[in-house]
Amino acid sequence: MRALRKTGPGPGAELVEIPVPMPGPNEVLVRVQAASICGTDLHIYEWNAWAARRIGDGRLPYTFGHEVAGRVVAVGDEVDHPLPGAFVAAETHLFCGHCGLCRTGKPHICQDMKILGVDVDGAFADYLVLPAHNAWVVDPRIPVDIASTMEPFGNAVHTVFPPGTDPEVATSVVAVLGCGPIGLFAIGVCRAAGARTVIAVEPNEFRLSLAKAMGADQLIDPSREDPVAAVLAATDGLGADVVLEMSGVPAVIEQGTRMLQHGGRLSLLGLPAGPVSLDLTDHVIFKEARIFGVTGRELFRSWQQTTTLLATGMVDVRPTITGQYPLERFEEAFDAVGSGRSAKVIFSIGNDE
Amino acid sequence: MRALRKTGPGPGAELVEIPVPMPGPNEVLVRVQAASICGTDLHIYEWNAWAARRIGDGRLPYTFGHEVAGRVVAVGDEVDHPLPGAFVAAETHLFCGHCGLCRTGKPHICQDMKILGVDVDGAFADYLVLPAHNAWVVDPRIPVDIASTMEPFGNAVHTVFPPGTDPEVATSVVAVLGCGPIGLFAIGVCRAAGARTVIAVEPNEFRLSLAKAMGADQLIDPSREDPVAAVLAATDGLGADVVLEMSGVPAVIEQGTRMLQHGGRLSLLGLPAGPVSLDLTDHVIFKEARIFGVTGRELFRSWQQTTTLLATGMVDVRPTITGQYPLERFEEAFDAVGSGRSAKVIFSIGNDE
Amino acid sequence: MRALRKTGPGPGAELVEIPVPMPGPNEVLVRVQAASICGTDLHIYEWNAWAARRIGDGRLPYTFGHEVAGRVVAVGDEVDHPLPGAFVAAETHLFCGHCGLCRTGKPHICQDMKILGVDVDGAFADYLVLPAHNAWVVDPRIPVDIASTMEPFGNAVHTVFPPGTDPEVATSVVAVLGCGPIGLFAIGVCRAAGARTVIAVEPNEFRLSLAKAMGADQLIDPSREDPVAAVLAATDGLGADVVLEMSGVPAVIEQGTRMLQHGGRLSLLGLPAGPVSLDLTDHVIFKEARIFGVTGRELFRSWQQTTTLLATGMVDVRPTITGQYPLERFEEAFDAVGSGRSAKVIFSIGNDE
Amino acid sequence: MRALRKTGPGPGAELVEIPVPMPGPNEVLVRVQAASICGTDLHIYEWNAWAARRIGDGRLPYTFGHEVAGRVVAVGDEVDHPLPGAFVAAETHLFCGHCGLCRTGKPHICQDMKILGVDVDGAFADYLVLPAHNAWVVDPRIPVDIASTMEPFGNAVHTVFPPGTDPEVATSVVAVLGCGPIGLFAIGVCRAAGARTVIAVEPNEFRLSLAKAMGADQLIDPSREDPVAAVLAATDGLGADVVLEMSGVPAVIEQGTRMLQHGGRLSLLGLPAGPVSLDLTDHVIFKEARIFGVTGRELFRSWQQTTTLLATGMVDVRPTITGQYPLERFEEAFDAVGSGRSAKVIFSIGNDE
């Protein structure tokens, strides 16, 4: 089968032929139909400092990619869910199942997590092996190409709806900082969940136009106006009830605390590369703000919610899909992802024969 | 009446005679019996940079002090709760009652808060005027001198029991960073609430011995061992479920994130003087940690809980009371507070005649 | 001034002239502009068994009515919010402000509650006296006549969004049992908050058509089909995540438990006149269902949420307003309310001169 | 091996020899050391109407019993947790792992639940087969005989600490209705978790004495005094914050609602045999009470909490263990359970050789 692989420690990747993998007793084999490109994949493709450190030479060569949907074509001996023929999307967090967090309903923060396409062979290939438990059967109302975006969409859902949220999004003012694909998805989710006002903050004009398309009420270009002042102006000086940080930029995270209402919530999904300096006294402690780290998806509550939002049409992610490529044109696809004039880019890999 | 006042911008205070204040229509006049000294009072006494900036010359002269209990001796025309004769402690956050937060059950994070003894005349005096709503009738099982500590005890209670807590303290491993009076109170509260293990971190040997007296299971002197390593060692490498940050020291806050279990909670009560640099990616986002700013007390849930804990004897705060002084010996009292060999120091001011 | 009063123990009411009341020090005087009719008012008008017992002869004569909006024309000496000129709607639960529940952020379940128009003179009159704290300043985007429905709309909001809700309404299947005005409002709120499917159950065909207009996805006439079977059929046999009981009919409440999903929530707002018999073992305990009693509105979170939903147009309540009458035509108005071909009926009483 | 089996539809059981079962690929074989008797087991032993209906002739003969601990002696091919040699207790709810509730962190309310010792062969035998996932490794500080009570103790823990609890147990007044083993355990758990007052209601004098031993502050014999009046008297007329219903008696459940404070929580664990009639208007809706159905244990949060409470000595269950028998003396053991002068009765079955 074809597989897009990192074959050496450096930029780029190679499309090579390798054997189709065999599923273990509790695994399924998936014929990949669509796989979308995450920012993480771009880091791996470019082999930046993070990728060199996180993955390392020892794993090479390996197949990357993790946002994926396809049809189950074979299952291990112990698998009775899902069965061959099921069309599934992949939960990419490969939790151990045995640690204290896995045992208490929080496998998404497993103490011993492995990541598909990072720690084990991934999705940019004709076939993929997955633990059966990580295969989510896709609602038939969700199109094949959209299905590969359920994984990052689930990130947005988990950011918007953490367990035990106060304040909740319904009737709240929400600021979304950073309008990459997950930020864009989050705008749609907040809109569907009855946010009062959704304010999008993003310096890239193209992405800001997508934020508009996804339902943002107010667009702020931080290269033109101070986003903290703009959010305060939009809220009678009070600040946003909920801030969803999707950029990972330290200065933006810091702005997130300053635009927050007393008692507000700042959810952090974007990953800063270095330390972040915050004024905790004035903007967290006296405000009694809550900062929530967010990673992955709640298993599988986020998938259920994602299914509802996408299958019913409450959120339409089509505006965020800015390119579809066959696997052979991977260089073009990664160029698009890195160009700043794209959001979600998808590989169309196979289909039902 | 006597009042301990800041009469000029600089260190020290003066005990002077001033007229007894008159309560307004919705206020009460309290004969002060006990008033305890907060770290904030020491800052004001010493007139450090924070005090000079926060209070400023314009307010001088004024009476400071805010942790206080006494008997209601007169009430305004519109007051029917409490009535003269009631023994009360003061909630020191003077909320506006009209802003969105006051109107929605969160007056402790009022948008327009004033603080007793900071923004208006305070408690180190024979008499005190309070909004009737801020006077909490003290359970008769709580002794007079202890009653003045209900306010800081309520801080500890609010830190331990935020609304919607997950993880909760019962059966959890809790680390308390900094064992000033509120940290010491928090140790007692966690013990009473069924914490599995309470780990106290404090460099001052005297305070560490008080932590032991309040029920800490494990004492860590960070000048002798790395507190992060020690907490991890005590938890099979997992980290604490709950960290209560009471020191306000930036480096300690940062350690708080590093000793936190996946899915853990870090509550911040101590006030750092400057920016705090955090590794959010590894210790907040990937851990899906929750950071809660904490200020004041929930009005008045924290007071109800405080009452229960102190009146039933579930927590005994006597070990934390390291000195009692008449108002005349204020210099001695402040020296004690600043000495490092004290915890809670109380002025015994008046009593029922 | 004119006032619609119960003057004797029996059906009917009299429109009489009485003096304009005087506000006390912490009260406001409101020039009534619109007052809508609640089911409770119909009970009082008809003087049914509940009214005879709850109100009793001793209170007569008195003015009834409580859903009301109007302009503040005078305020007591101690009032600085709101000021004369403000257009306000009335929170009708007159909480004591002093009991444990009032003191801990739950005044809507005050231990010593009085109800406007039941325990004290009410709203079907030219002028009304209210505690200043019970006057909610209306967002100018909400029209005058709609403003008087904010109080029952707030009931719907509080039913849909209880604190600490799990499951939440966003992405859930919700069944609304009974489509009187509050049920109809709840349908609109659920729709705005991102419910997956809203199922309305109501035997009255006219009201079922209003349910459709408010956004219900599925309409069930329980006189034609078994509502439990219908909800199960609509949910692959699983049941609804959330059931909002608005009818107060014992058999319907019991059906509510039977149509509930494992882990589901049944919120009870409708008031049954007698005991209700439930199969707790199979439909509450084994399902681990949660039953929430609901009364009034959260003060004033529900009012904030109501404001957002009505002022932004997220919910349009116009379809539910089926009649507007001057006070003189009160008999016609009450006939309409009792007719089964109405939802919300409003008295247009005064306006700005 | 020996197995205590129901061999026919009627009272009693037979101790017979049957082959040791073989674990499947994802199962473990456990050498049973201790198995305790649940009220359910007594129903099965007596073959009452519930047992005849729930289990039915079709399953006979089969082995009953489900509260059990023992050592893993063999594991299936796919099992790597736990390994042979581990000492484990059984989670007796055999969830499907595939339904919506299992997939979203709520397997304890699985749509397709099977129960150990009810739907499949159980624990009153020398050996037992369990899904590996249902085997909880016991903390070595918990003695063997106590380990078999972790399952019902976990019921008590889950009743006391539901997710998202408000009001919480710490500093609350709790009434426990019914002092069978789970009620007695709940008293100990509430005590450890910082309840203000624990009130035990139980007509059996022997059990009431055990309630005292487990830490109840107040004992109410409902055959001598009205428990509703007694709880109101103990709470200044307000009622209990939390009521834990462990009796399953309809009249007692109804009393539970009447003794509840406004905003209080009533958790239902006891299983009523028939319908329960409640005054929802006055005691649930106007009070804004919350009724929580409770079944089983949260998987596996309740087991973690149980481990902490038993391993640290925060709760000592020894007073509740009123008899230990070899399997041969099963008739004596069941007589003891049915006698009213017992609480938890344990079979000592095997031990390490």
Oligomer: homotetramer
**Estimated structural class of chain A:** alpha/beta
Count of discrete alpha- or pi-helical segments spanning 4 or more residues of chain A:
12
Gyration radius over CA of chain A:
20 Å
Q: Residue-averaged pLDDT of chain A, rounded? A: 96
Largest interface: C-D, 39 and 39 residues
Q: Largest sheet of chain A, described in full?
A: 7 strands, mixed
Helix content of chain A: 25-40%
Strand content of chain A: 25-35%
Based on CA inertia axes, which overall geometry of chain A fits? globular
Poorly predicted ranges of chain A: none
- First and last CA, distance of chain A: 16 Å
Number of strand elements of chain A: 19
Task: Summarize the structure in words.
Four copies of one chain form a homotetramer. The first copy, chain A, has twelve helices and 19 strands. Chain A is an alpha/beta fold and 353 residues long. The two termini of chain A are 16 Å apart. The mean pLDDT of chain A is 96. In chain A, strand 11, helix 6 and strand 12 (197-201) form a beta-alpha-beta unit. In chain A, strands 3, 5, 6, 9, 10, 18 and 19 form a seven-stranded mixed beta sheet that branches. A six-stranded parallel beta sheet of chain A has the order 13-12-11-14-15-17, sandwiched between helices. The first copy, chain A, has a three-stranded antiparallel beta sheet with strand order 2-1-4, with no helix packed on it.
SSE arrangement:
4 copies of one chain form a homotetramer.
Chain A: E1 2-6, E2 14-17, E3 27-36, H1 39-46, H2 49-54, E4 62-63, E5 67-75, E6 87-90, E7 93-94, H3 100-103, E8 114-115, E9 127-131, E10 135-137, H4 144-147, H5 150-160, E11 173-177, H6 181-192, E12 197-201, H7 205-213, E13 218-220, H8 227-233, E14 240-245, H9 250-258, E15 260-268, E16 276-278, H10 280-285, E17 290-293, H11 301-311, E18 321-325, H12 330-338, E19 344-348
Parallel strand pairs in A: 11-12, 11-14, 12-13, 14-15, 15-17, 18-19
Antiparallel strand pairs in A: 1-2, 1-4, 3-5, 3-9, 3-19, 5-6, 6-10, 7-8
